[in-house]
Amino acid sequence: MVHADVPDDPTAYKRQEYWEERYAKEESFDWFKTYEDLKPLLSQHITSKDARILMLGCGNSTLSEDMYDDGYHNIVNIDFSKTVIDNMTEKCKDRVGMEWIEMDIKDLKFEAGSFDIAIDKGTMDALMCDRGDVWNPDEELVRTVAQEVDEVVRVLKIGGKFLYITFGQPHFRKRHLERPCWTVETSTLGVAFHYFFYHMIKQDTPSS
């Protein structure tokens, strides 16, 4: 799917002001795949409808709404855009129990070990939009992505899962996801164009 509001500078995807302006005029947009596409893999990895789920950089995707309507009622959605959080709070006001919170994915305000599942559908990709060498990303990009992943590790319970949906191939993404507390596993979606579904389970290690 091609979106009309594609910035000339890809690094715009990393800037909050770009998203505030875009969400002010856009009701809904789904990056990569919809819940219908993802449901087989999500249901395989989220075995309880009561799981506490953190949606990282929720944007105005329909994923959380569709998951809620399918029985996942304990979803906490975060985004650094106040505009989209306000819009989604109003849009989903009848979905009782689902939360929408303005928050930076690199600085989560949740207690350690407070989520069963963390989902990133394209958010990390926005952080990685850069004009540099994808084979040798600059230190700032590496540090920024590491902040998100480290925060996910912190807020997940032991046995909790990090699910990441992206077009990023393993040789570009696995290095950013690897941590002592888990093994990075990969599944693929699509036929002509592949998307990747990374799944990690937090283990009890001395560093956890």
From TrEMBL:
One Pfam family linked to the record: Methyltransf_11
Source organism, top-level taxon: Eukaryota
Transmembrane segments: none
Keywords: Methyltransferase, Transferase
Gene Ontology process terms (BP): methylation
Gene Ontology terms, MF aspect: methyltransferase activity
Signal sequence, start to end: none
Domain Methyltransferase type: 54-163
Keyword Methyltransferase belongs to the record: yes
Family in the record: Belongs to the methyltransferase superfamily.
PANTHER family: EEF1A LYSINE METHYLTRANSFERASE 4, SAM-DEPENDENT METHYLTRANSFERASE SUPERFAMILY PROTEIN
Protein name, entry field: S-adenosyl-L-methionine-dependent methyltransferase
Organism: Linnemannia elongata AG-77
